[in-house]
Design goal:
This protein has 4 domains: 125 residues, no CATH class; 304 residues, no CATH class; 188 residues, Nucleotide cyclase, GGDEF domain (Alpha-Beta Plaits), CATH 3.30.70; 59 residues, no CATH class. The protein starts with a helix and ends with a strand. With 752 residues, it is an alpha/beta fold. α4 packs parallel to α7 and α15 runs antiparallel to α16. The chain has 24 helices and 26 strands. Strands 18, 19, 20, 21, 22, 23, 24, 25 and 26 form a 9-stranded mixed β-sheet that branches. Strands 1, 2, 3, 4, 5, 6, 14 and 15 form an 8-stranded mixed β-sheet that branches. A 3-stranded antiparallel β-sheet has the order 10-11-12. The relative contact order is 0.08.
């Protein structure tokens, strides 16, 4: 028989192992599909872009790169010099000042000059020169003036023999009917006949808007300034270095400026040794002299952001025109002219912040290219991600179930931290971008499924244990202890707790008038909502004693708000009984009223009883006092009484002080109170009544019988609370029988 049980146990273990492996494999399938590119899942893509952005923000070098200075078309420049575009002679002055006065090294324009300057002044002069009666001296002066009015020519002449890169825009979609070409393109960096056999998916333009021919002819070169590779979420993470137009390749502004800074070396392509999908060579890097920049299959690079906006010096364009810019900032600098003004519509969303000027994106690109420090995703990165799923699935399926829940959690955290650390090492030290989000998502997804499987497999045993444990502790508390994995002891211990007693008024007469079966239904209808309320307020039912209920708070689970929860439960019980009177009346049952007493104090809690039967209960003087308080409710005409310790434990509750009494069996007097409710919910009228009642008590204890009686009469006329009559009767007694000189105002109860 034992051998049979052993074989069954082994079979079950094998079944569990196979099931766990199946869970890991089935969970792995969508992640493998995503990593292989066969089926991309948007939520995994979004997770990876989030992880990429987080790594960028976490590892940006920070600081200011003073090599590249942005000549800023800011709000101040626009308000000072006028709206954009500025007259071309002003642009000529800007270029001359940058090169002659500030001695910059290279200038790149993140701007487009596709339309001629305003010709109205030239037309006016030409019209005057056609007048044959114009005096010769005035004619000469007008002809000289006309020369100065040719602002496009002045702008073009300011570019001659200077390392200056203009900007132009490719159009990647041209609506039908629009002109596809405007202006003059610069020379391409590669002609179509030089690209034979190369299968690179360069961004392909359908048209362009370039600079005026007179401007581009005198400029050194130009680069495209628009960004065709913005991600689907609108965030600029990648930037194209090259675009194709009619088979020729053209450089971006960033690449064109970087080439000038590096001495204008020939641009060379580095190809992978394997053939691309179309049978040609796949591009791997761009080589610029001694510098090499890794690119993706579209010759794009991940923008090497230095930090948030203003990671490069900004110089207002108007300060350059006025000659007040800092010469040390601009001397021998790589200058980029661009706009940060919001109205210029050149602000982008980036991993390091929104409203990021496009010209600063170019600055980051140029800095990364001339340093040769641009992160890239190697060809094997997806393979690493693909392979990592297998050991993760095996570890989670076969090793983690052998561990304790706490150790299992710590191991999962350690695995996640290790994956992140390795990923960050390659990110920082090797400049490799390796996907991390799908790997972490798979780790936590498969771990969650395995944990749930383990939970359901073990739930049968847990239910059996809960049933056994529930003989000593209420089942609902056992369930919560299971959920929280709490360390609970049923051995006797002393704790600060709160205890509640409730009893039905006149139950003897009620029970005598009902048949046994009807009495049973009556008791169930009464005790069920009472129990629900106690449980809802985290109380433990100690016992039912006929019509009485005893409950406590603060054990077996620790409850720092045990006094509050006990009082709130008592108030809800009284409110529920008020609702049930109508329900009972419909059934022909008698009206039910209860008394509730709550006390807070040190109690002994634990398993108590004999070897035949034990119960999880509380004992002590504080428990006895709680029972006495419930018994006093009928003497004071109230439904709820709490002790002074409970009153002190809930400072934000309003209470009515009832008396200071010596309960039966105790010599030490206690103050007793009637709960009213949260102070913040009391009306102004209720606050006034409580204040006047407190004044009446003070007068009573000071033996000011007449004044106390006047206040009590006034209060009686307002709300008719029975306590007012109790004190008026005592006052009348003391008028006839004055108390002794050492009277302390304490009332001695003669009944429980």
């Amino acid at each position: 028989m034992s051998d049979l049980f052993g074989r069954i146990a082994k079979l079950l273990r094998r079944t569990h192992v196979v099931t766990r492996l199946a869970i890991s494999v089935l969970t792995m399938i969508p992640f493998l599909m995503h990593s292989s590119g066969w089926k991309r899942f948007d939520f995994l893509t979004e997770l990876e872009t989030f992880a990429y952005d987080a790594r960028v923000r976490l590892t940006t070098p920070g600081g200011i790169d003073e090599r590249i200075v942005i000549i800023d078309l800011d709000e101040r420049s626009l308000s000072t010099e006028g709206h954009w575009p500025w007259p071309r002679d002003k642009m000529a002055d800007l270029i001359n000042s940058l090169y002659d006065d500030y001695e910059i090294r290279v200038l790149g324009f993140d701007a487009l000059f596709s339309e001629a300057d305003d010709p109205s002044a030239i037309l006016l002069v030409d019209n005057l020169l056609t007048d044959p009666k114009l005096p010769g001296e005035l004619r000469d002066r007008l002809q000289n003036q006309r020369y100065e009015l040719e602002t496009d020519r002045l702008f073009a002449e300011s570019m001659i023999a200077r390392d200056l890169v203009m900007g132009f825009a490719f159009r990647y979609q041209v609506p039908e009917g629009d002109a596809a070409e405007s202006g003059l393109l610069p020379d391409p960096v590669r002609r179509s006949d030089e690209l034979t056999g190369i299968s690179v998916e360069f961004p392909r333009a359908a048209g362009y808007v370039a600079n005026l021919e007179i401007l581009q002819s005198d400029a050194l070169t130009a680069g495209f300034i628009n960004k065709p590779l913005i991600d689907d979420d609108g965030i600029t993470r990648r930037a194209a270095t090259l675009s194709s137009y009619q088979g020729d390749l053209y450089a971006s502004l960033s690449l064109a400026v970087a080439l000038q800074v590096l001495g204008n070396p020939p641009l060379q392509f580095v190809f992978a040794t394997t053939e691309g999908e179309l049978g040609g060579l796949a591009i791997e890097a761009l080589k610029m002299g001694e510098k090499s920049v890794r690119v993706d299959n579209r010759a794009a690079v991940l923008v090497p952001y230095r930090g948030p906006r203003n990671s490069f010096p900004y110089v207002s364009a108007t300060d350059v025109l006025k000659g007040v810019a800092d010469p040390d900032t601009l001397r021998n600098a790589i200058a980029l002219f661009g706009a940060s003004a919001a109205g210029m519509l050149d602000l982008h969303s980036t991993p390091v912040g929104g409203a990021y000027p496009g010209v600063e994106v170019h600055a980051n690109m140029i800095a990364g290219m001339i340093d040769g420090q641009v992160r890239h995703m190697p060809d094997w990165a997806r393979g690493v991600e693909f392979v990592m799923f297998i050991p993760i699935g095996l570890l989670v399926a076969l090793w983690l179930p052998r561990l304790s829940p706490l150790t299992e959690f710590l191991v999962l955290v350690a695995m996640a931290v290790s994956l992140l650390a390795i990923n960050l090492y390659y990110w920082i030290d090797k400049s490799f971008v390796i996907p991390i989000a799908p790997t972490l998502a798979y780790l936590f997804a498969v771990a969650l499924l395995q944990l749930n499987y383990g939970f359901f497999i073990e739930s049968k045993n847990k239910r059996r244990l809960s049933g056994m444990f529930g003989q000593y502790i209420p089942p609902e508390i056992v369930e919560e202890m299971d959920q929280e994995d709490s360390e609970i002891s049923v051995e006797g211990e002393n704790r600060e707790m709160s205890v509640l007693f409730s009893d039905v008024r006149g139950f003897t007469s009620i029970s005598e008038g009902m048949k046994p079966t009807e009495l049973t239904r009556f008791m169930n209808a009464f005790l069920t909502p009472i129990t629900e309320i106690i449980h809802r307020h985290r109380g433990t039912i100690d016992k039912y004693m006929g019509d009485a209920v005893m409950a406590f708070w603060g054990a077996p689970l620790t409850d720092k708000e045990h006094a509050r929860h006990a009082v709130e439960a008592g108030m809800d019980m009284i409110a529920r009984m008020s609702q049930m009177r109508e329900e009972f009346a419909e059934k022909g049952w008698p009206e039910v009223r209860i008394g509730v007493g709550v006390n807070t104090g040190p109690m002994n809690v634990g398993n108590m009883g004999s070897k035949f039967r034990v119960a999880y209960t509380v004992l002590g003087d504080a428990v006895n006092l709680g029972s006495r308080l419930e018994g006093q409710t009928k003497n004071y005409g109230v439904e709820f009484i709490v002790s002074e310790t409970t009153y002190v434990a809930i400072p934000d509750f309003a209470f009515r002080e009832l008396d200071r009494i010596r309960v039966k069996g105790k010599n030490v007097p206690v103050a007793i109170f009637e709960p009213i409710g949260p102070r913040e919910k009391l009306s102004a009228e209720e606050n006034i009544r409580l204040s006047r009642y407190q004044l009446a008590l003070m007068l009573y204890h000071a033996q000011k019988w007449d004044l106390a009686d006047e206040e009590l009469i006034a209060l009686k006329n307002r709300d008719g609370h029975p306590i007012y009559d109790i004190y008026r009767e005592r006052i009348e007694h003391f008028r006839q029988n004055p108390p002794e000189a050492d009277w302390d105002g304490v009332y001695t109860a003669t009944s429980k």
